[in-house]
Amino acid sequence: MTINTLSQDGVQRQQMPCLTKMERMIISMQDPDMGIKLRNQRLLITVIPHAMTGVDIVEWLIKKFSISDEEALHVGQLFIKYGYIYPLKEPRNLILKADDSSYRFQTPYYWMSTRWPASELDYAIYLAKKNIRKQGELIEYEKECYNALHKRINHTWDFVVMQAREQLRASKQRRKADRIVLECQEQAYWLVNRPPPGTQDSIDHGPERRTMNTRVQLNAEFYKKEIEHNRISLARNRVKSSICLESYVKYCEQYQPHDPIMQGCLPSNPWITDDIMFWNMTSETVALPTKLRVERWSFCFMELLNDPMGRKEFLTYLEKEFSAENLCFWQACEDVRHGETAKIPEKVDEVYKQFLAPGASRWVNIDSKTMEKTLEGLKRPHRFVLDDAQMHIYFLMKKDSYPRYLKSELYKNLLARAIVPQETKKSVFPFMRRQRHSSPSPALATQTAEDDGKAKNSNSNSGTASRL
Amino acid sequence: MASQEESSQPSDTLTTLKTESETLKTKLEEERAKLHDVELHQVAEKIEALGQFVIKTRRTLKGHGNKVLCMDWCKDKRRIVSSSQDGKVIVWDAFTTNKEHAVTMPCTWVMACAYAPSGCAVACGGLDNKCSVYPLSLDKNENLAAKKKSVAMHTNYLSACCFTNSDMQILTSSGDGTCALWDVESGQMLQSFHGHAADVLCLDLAPSETGNTFVSGGCDKKACVWDMRTGQCIQSFETHESDINSVRYYPSGDAFASGSDDATCRLYDLRADREVAIYSKESIIFGASSVDFSFSGRLLFGGYNDYTINVWDVLKGTRMSILFGHENRVSTLRVSPDGTAFCSGSWDNTLRIWA
Questions:
Q1: Do both A270 and A410 map to the same domain?
Q2: Could you tell me which chain A residue has the CA closest to the CA of B209?
Q3: Among A1, A3, B39, B61, which is 20 to 30 Å from B225 by CA?
Q4: Which residues contact A39 (CB under 8 A, 6 or more apart)?
Q5: Are A269 and A278 in contact (CB under 8 A)?
Q6: Is residue A192 included in any domain, yes or no?
Q7: Tell me, what's a Pfam family for it (chain B) (predicted)?
Q8: Cβ of A384 and B295 within 8 Å?
């Protein structure tokens, strides 16, 4: 065996806690009392010890983890992909079969956590040995690798050939059964670490993390900041877990009827029936909304505002109450907060003129302290200069106008008229698929709107809500 | 004697600071534990167990020539954008499975992509350390790459990006250990977020009323909640045992879930200021790469590096079902905006829509 002096990169190993878990499982699979019962397996004319069948592996996994056949087969499959178990009869076929096919545990010497990444030198020696044994008759891809290596590490080739010869000589002196086992183990290792072209590379892990390029300096300043953060965190107010967790139960309960994956949706889930009625009925521009949708507006203020139709209805209500300027102000503030940086000064100025200036046409009622602070901030307008005022108006609407809206005739009327769609009857011919209609791209919708908008003067009432 | 006392050895100071920080962290965990009077599954005992429901692959999107790394939904609930290892970014109408736009990025490993709220643009980036925005043109002859706008510049790979409430701002996270907020039009950095000790791998915007916070997760096993206005880290959680690959807010905004290489998903409550649930199973060995909640928050879908998707009952903490189908790692998973389906992308070059 090649004594591998490759030093493991501690960082890489950190990235693979899955290997530690796999190895723990592998060890318990080999436990003399609770593990898999191993037996001898005949391979041509030799007897290989400590073998097991595919069924043994699957059944052990089912019993140990209380999982299904399918899941057990899947987990077992991972052990083979990562080289912890290898098949005896068809070594190139790295698949777990739940029948009497034979498998063996790989020796820890070749485990991925001890011997990864595989070294080029070791691979060269392995191929050289094979080349000598088979007198030059290597498989195509192995031949290519061999030649490529020969070119790349030409300077050490004498060493490679010498090592290969040494190992072959040493192995000839072993018992035949041992020799075959060692050859199987070595072959299995290389099939995982140098997979033939066309087969999946299980050990591909993607771009490296925590490389030298990570620029975070773990210096005094970093730790001082961390200490400061921890001190502040210590003093923070916390809520009892019982109260927090209870709120999830309530939330899930309230929203479960609205969760299509859990409870289905009416008339039907478009992805399942290919019928897009559901999307048509819940679109922004529909004439009459669905009952579920109108109900959701009553869950919390954000639900009402986030739905463009809900927002429009609320605006209509506020107009009746002569407080529509509140919502318009809130929308204008959103536009400032989320809009283009370059346009902020002009937008803020527009907001001031319309909503905050004394005698403004749509003056909003903010408490004097907030108004003073805001006006002061307007001297140097920035993205968040209207935040306090916006928050004030938001909570005003939430605490006052919103609850009254929910009790209003306007809302109750709409709720009563709202549609409960009929469930789409399942097709009589289930194998006949409905035609899947395409829909206009949102990019097109906005281009037309933009063309229209160019004619009109854009005002800050439009907000940045999605134009779909 | 005096001179010896005065001479400051930098390494000693660093060690002292590090120890002080660790001590504070331990104290913090003790404080957090004081108000933890009940476990989530105990509270959930009184709820009825969920019946079995069927989730199947309803669409398979084939077209990427290499590993799919990221995807995002359009607000129209049927279109998606996906990015892959070979630099291709594709916009699909997932319902019809038609490809509508394709862009070839000048770099490989496009690990992040996002759909603009208006549906008129997509953002993407990866090993080029940048985040670029491509306006989507309907002119078949137009070369999308020509109108590309370079917005974000980091000093290491881009791991995630998302638009805030409009097309005008983008939030990014990077392998350089920072997150940043950018103005799309000017490319100006509006705010940067420092505090992670290693690569930041994921982020998610809070659905809260005031809409000013977001959460990020990184290779330092930390999940941090940030104030977008000030750049300050408001809260941080360090209970995972390995890299955090994915973070996603619970629909109410009061909590978030995380998926990690330690093969667990966890739920953190922001008001209780602590971890409140762990979703794990002995037979799940490989890391969770991507997590998302169903519309009501009752289900948590996790895409894992062992090619499977596990569906968790968020309240009871149990695994509802395991979905097979992908032939390689699941790298990305998002529930659609109206919750009718979720999409998973995989290193097997395909995307699947499940419902």
A1: yes
A2: A302
A3: B39
A4: A50, A51, A52
A5: yes
A6: yes
A7: WD40_Gbeta
A8: no
Joined tokens for residue B195? 């505090």
A71 interaction partners in chain B (CB closer than 8 Å): 283, 322
Consecutive sets of 10 residues in chain A, 468 residues long: mean pLDDT of each? 36 66 93 89 78 94 95 95 91 90 92 82 92 86 90 90 93 88 90 86 79 76 91 92 94 96 93 94 92 96 95 96 95 92 93 92 92 91 92 95 96 95 73 77 63 40 29
The tally of domains found in chain A comes to: 3
Task: Specify the CATH number for the domain of residue A372.
Answer: 1.10.167.10
Q: Does B227 touch chain A (CB under 8 A)?
A: no
Chain B nearest CA to A53, separation (Å): 20
Domain presence at residue A85: yes
d(CA A270, CA A289): 18
Are A311 and A190 members of one domain? Answer: no
Domain that holds residue A175: 116-201
What is the phi/psi pair of residue A104, to 5°? Answer: -135, 155
Q: Where are the domains of chain B?
A: 64-163, 195-348+350-354
Q: Which fold has domain B195-348+350-354?
A: Methylamine Dehydrogenase; Chain H (2.130.10)
Subunit contact A225:B37, Cβ cutoff 8 A = no
Question: What does the pLDDT look like over B190-228, one tens digit per residue?
Answer: 999 999 999 999 999 999 676 689 999 999 999 999 999
Contact B313/A at CB under 8 A:
no
Query: Closest residue of B to A436, CA-based?
Result: B96
Report how far residue B315's alpha carbon sits from residue A425's, in angstroms, rounded to the nearest whole number: 33
The answer to whether B102 contacts chain A (CB < 8 Å) is no
Q: Which two tokens stand for residue B272?
A: 């209780």
Closest-CA residue in chain A for B22? A227
For domain B64-163, give the CATH superfamily. Answer: TolB, C-terminal domain (2.120.10.30)
Q: Does B319 touch chain A (CB under 8 A)?
A: no
What values do phi and psi take at A148, rounded to 5? Answer: -65, -45
In a domain, A433, yes or no: no
Nearest CA to B136 out of B156, B152, B118, B157 is that of B118
Question: What's the ipTM?
Answer: 0.93
**CB–CB contact B298 A252 (8 Å):** yes
Distance of alpha carbon A413 from alpha carbon B62, whole angstroms: 47
* B49 part of contact set with chain A, CB < 8 Å: no
Q: Are residues A38 and A111 in the same domain?
A: yes
Tracing tokens 């090592």 back to the chain, one arrives at A163
Chain A contact for B345, CB < 8 A? no
Q: How many A/B residue pairs have CB atoms within 8 Å?
A: 326
CATH of the domain at A155: 1.10.1240.60
Say what the pTM is. 0.91
Q: At what angle do helices A157-172 and A176-193 cross, to 10 degrees?
A: 140
In a domain, A206, yes or no: no
